[in-house]
């Protein structure tokens, strides 16, 4: 976690401690359900299969009205606005699409690379998880998808530290046998690296410190192996036929995890791209996890500054690494610019589909 005051006070830790004293009960019900995938995931898949029916103007108007009363338990201003662009849900989750990578994880063999995909890459039909797996394979890495629970960031944010620790203990166990743990979600990256603070003074602290040293965001691994990626024969043909101006939104959690330069280096060296730094690249886009649901109007006012910065950059594409930021960017920009996860963007260049 970062220390934002001259006195070295960890403000975020103080906030989390205070929220733990007053946990949000409605969020707690959702997290308890999420921790039971045999119940939660069939519900989510049903929502995915029917999204073409309910994600339309009239049904969305009904949903906004009905959900407002339910979401009031989350925050007085919480709602799912009728015109908000929602992420597409996956009818087949990432783990369903790669069952071979989920098998034989307890056979006693040392596994080299584990992909901690997190919730968003598993549940959303956004291509991020597929892109990460494809890029790892391009680097001659065959990843595994270990059994995993939510990294804990949203759970702890709503005051349920004990539940966050429960999931974290499972993650420590299932990730223990891997030399490298690759992440694609900014929040997951920070959370896994912050497990030593979560278990400070407890028996799990040493294992948490060991895990924190093995976590790498996909952009870090890509930059370490950029010569392999850049040497791909596809990049010397299609990708060089045109140049796309791209800018980078630096998510708060990835910065706090210490990953700031690798994504920029990758974008600056990819053929076919012209990387431009936007003004206030490190400034929050207003999504802030579920804040765009808790106070949509305020989150959009915060986003106005980000929109102006993107427009001023002249970029027609925005790269980032945070699922919540991606939702906020896609909703706020609409047709003004294309929004892609950095892994998705790199893989598109490698495939020659830019």
Q: Structural class, please?
A: alpha/beta
Number of strands: 7
Number of domains as seen in the coordinates: 3
Amino- and carboxy-terminal Cα gap: 36 Å
Number of helices: 21
Question: How would you describe this protein?
Answer:
The model has no long low-confidence stretch (mean pLDDT 89). Strand 6, helix 20 and strand 7 form a beta-alpha-beta unit. Helix 19 crosses helix 20. 52% of the residues lie in helices and 9% in strands. The strands form 2 sheets. Strands 5-4-6-7 form a 4-stranded parallel sheet, with helices on both faces. A 3-stranded parallel sheet has the order 1-2-3. The chain has 354 residues and is of the alpha/beta class.
Keywords:
354 residues, alpha/beta, Rossmann fold, 3 domains, 4-stranded parallel sheet, 21 helices, 52% helix
Q: Can you lay out the helices and strands and say which pair or pack?
A:
Elements: H1 11-21, H2 25-34, H3 37-49, H4 51-54, H5 57-71, H6 94-97, E1 111-116, H7 118-123, H8 128-138, H9 153-157, H10 161-175, E2 178-183, H11 186-193, H12 195-198, H13 205-212, E3 215-217, H14 218-224, H15 226-230, E4 244-248, H16 252-256, H17 261-269, E5 273-275, H18 291-294, H19 296-313, E6 317-320, H20 323-333, E7 338-341, H21 342-351
Parallel strand pairs: 1-2, 2-3, 4-5, 4-6, 6-7
Helix pairs in contact: 8-21, 14-17, 19-20
